Amino acid sequence: MTAPFRTGLAALAALSLTTPPVLAQTSSEPTAASADPMIGTGGEGHTFPGAVAPFGMIQLSPDTDTTCQIRKCYSHAAGYRYEDPTIQGFSMTHFSGAGHSDLGDFLIQPVSGDTVGLEPDDYRSPFDHATEQAVPGYYAVTLAKPGVRAEMTAGTRVGVQRYTFPAGKAAHLLFDLRSSLYNYPGKILWSSIRIRADGTITGARETRGWAPARKLFFAIRPSRQITGHAFLDREKKVEYRGFQGPSRGADDAQQLAGRELVARFDFGQIDGPLEVKVAISAVDEDGAIANLDSEPGNFDAVRAATGKAWDQALGAVELEGPAPMKKMVATALYHSLIAPSVFSDADGRWRGPDDQVHQASNFTFHSTFSLWDTFRAEHPLLLLTQSEKKNADFVNSLIASQQVSPFGILPVWQFNGRETWTMIGYHAVPVIADAYMKGIRGFDPNAALDAMVKSATYGPYGGLDQYMKLGYVPIDKEPEAASKTVEYAYDDWAIARMAKAMGKADIAAPFEARAGNWRNSFDVKTGFLRARKADGTYRTPFDPTAINYGSDYTEGNAWQYSWFVPQDQAGMFKLLGGDAAAVKKLDAMFDFDNSKLDYSHAEDIAGLIGQYIHGNEPSHHVAYLYSYAGQPWRTQERLKQIVESQYKPTPDGLSGNDDLGQMSAWFVFTALGFYPVAPGSNEYVIGRPFLDRATLNLPNGKRFAIVAEGLSDTNKYVGKVLLNGKPLARGYLKHDEIIAGGELRFTMSAKPNKSWATGKAVRPYSMSTAPR
């Protein structure tokens, strides 16, 4: 899911590649030093600025609004919004760039002084952006009301907060179990808190939000002794007070359970910072304590370890280019390495979609899979930047979830091990198939293929029963039928590709046939993908610009979805009338006059260039389609247009929400100079680079360099391409060519090269014309 339409988006200040001399100087600092977690925290980027380790289980970050209701929650999906003037507190879990709000679990806020109220308005504090600092793995801000300097860092399963209180004032922590993102009445089903004999604070809560019946446990260990505390049951309007010491049994002063709990912990006047170590678990309190102990060390030790982890993770891509561009690419890479998040405990236990606890023995379970978004570029990027083990962990997590799913299918949009049923398709399939096709092992391919087939044949899901009978999803039986038809067809192609590679022709054949089902909803007369009814007729009236939820398309319209045939763009171009007709229609899409259209009712429509919507994923591959029509120079022009209007090195620098790294992964690939239009094809369509030089430090230990000679604002076209010193005549790269290491060298030009990569034999993969 992505972001709401904002009027005036076309007027975003463009980042020019021709900058003043100081800015245009090539930056040589490490990639991690260039990343800026504040990018995307404003506008509708929905990213958070707080501390997280690569793929970390815990995300310590400020929440500026936890009281939102339904529509307002969308703008605060990450908890923090740059435009807000106050901070409610710091919670332990956050999405990075999601199109739906949830999480914000276990909020802590430091307060100072003798009088401390337990209501949100009592402890909410103003802050100044000038006091903020955000780098990968670390966040800090000064809270004006209590005068406290708040610092956050996080390891894989542990977070550490450090609070420096003003001298001469008593120090307190407010712990609010009522607070949550998407916090409507009745979301908190139950919660509990207790102080253990050793001073460790533990508890749990169950919520009913985006995901149902989500259980989460916590463990908190302050570095100083608690001198007093108070527990408030807001529902019963009863406050319990007590003092820290050996447990005296199950009295209310030491522990409490209920639906609206808040606690205050007192520390008196202290002569130094208060460190608070926190951990979570989906299994039980003991699991949270074990996670707390799994990463020893104080704040500085955890920060140093996580800093090294980010140096290594972001060092997978070395960048050289103008500082603003490098900052944007480095930040995009950073955002692409936050999810899928670790979600098994240190002992390997995890809670699944069946709400039962399971044991992982040979992999680390991950959750937070926004698959409708991330199958496109996020997961393909991880295959180039992460180890085989890490990518196998992702696949094993998907398979394990399927094996314990009450419905027996792969995750659709999963977080904290729970299924939300958000978005369409069965897009865990291309993630698994792409990994297998690119040589990732460490998982059972037979179990994977079985899971993929079960997902593609589960009739009750999203009109699949009708799709299997009719060859398309009928709109009078199922909403968003046109989108579902083409997305199912692509996923079916991915199954066929993997089955064929495994030598299972009996499975490959029927799914290869199903991969052509997109034709059954493509109306040749209008040149658009359209929804059909069960009797075979197209639904009328038809307006290709109309966007409405629950209509023929998913978060888009016919203009965007008519191009979604990544497995067979050549076949689709043929139905349009050939290459010239396809180029004409692509131009019509980008140049469309939107002045009389109003998409303000659709939250997820942002980043419009005509009818191209960069803020939403169905458009992400479209600029690369000129290359399928033999006009790659037009792809180069459109990419420059998109990059300059949709990305900035500022808090509002993302035109739409980041969707767990997909918007960012698109930008990383595009800046490098190529993009995976059809994951599963083992090909990348060549675009144009936006950096002077970039080097992929590949998981196999080899290096692949991309060099752009003469890159400038004027030289926006690709004059020629060399692969390992030899001319490359085709408009695509093979995966094997990248992982073998070497060099891709672009010579940039002020004029388009209209003879390079134009012939049909040198165009990217399409199943109907060039099976390879």
Automatic annotation (TrEMBL):
GO BP terms, alphabetized: carbohydrate metabolic process; glycoprotein catabolic process
Domain Glycosyl hydrolase family: 288-749
GO CC, any one term: cytosol
Any one GO molecular-function label of the UniProt entry: carbohydrate binding
Presence of the UniProt keyword Disulfide bond in the record: no
Signal peptide bounds: 1-24
Keyword set, alphabetical order: Signal
Segments forming domain Glycosyl hydrolase family 92 N-terminal: 36-281
PANTHER family per the UniProt record, alphabetical: PEPTIDE N-GLYCANASE PNGASE -RELATED, SECRETED PROTEIN
Name of the featured protein: Putative alpha-1,2-mannosidase
Organism (species): Sphingomonas kyeonggiensis
